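Appendix B, Record 12. Input sequence as logged:
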Amino acid sequence: MAKVKWKMSLALILSGMLGAPAVASAHASGRITEVIRFVPHTPGRGMLRGYCWTGSIAIARSDAWRCMAGNEIFDPCFEDKDKGFVVCDPNPAKGDPGLRMKLTKPLPEAERQTGRVGGQGAWLVELADGTTCRPRTGAGWEVQGKIVNYYCESSQKGIEIDLLGELDSSKPLWTAEKASIIQGAEGPNLINLQRAAIKRVWR
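Logged structural output:
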């Protein structure tokens, strides 16, 4: 009986030792979408002066805000470890720490979001092909009856890349509907639609 218990214990220990490398290997092979909670790192690549007037529209985090510097809106901006500052426009997929904003007004505590990040929410998405996408926080519009929720970088002049609808997180490897669109005189024209794998998301 003692030998059986010892074998079971050894199996559990080996399982625990092998679990983390197995997950890391799955991430590396692209079979699992990596979900990352973003933590800002300062100093950033530059300094701004501005203020935040409401919680972020891009992501439901209690430390994320919608802010303005001059006439430019930044969303999300994340509270810095140093009070009186937030970090805006980071892109961890590209190694970009973002801009550090010195607040000219205190954060509006009455507008602070109380909910934690959950569900499918992501403020930055990196597709398997390296394309990065961010949530649309302005006026919404539709393509083929589906809401354009994310806009993406595009290397093709005149062609807009967007993600339609919600991210599909029903499987370990998340996917999204990636649309290539040309804006015409009568509205958007869809030229390509494909199911794209998601490498990483930041919450």
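Helices lie at 2-28.
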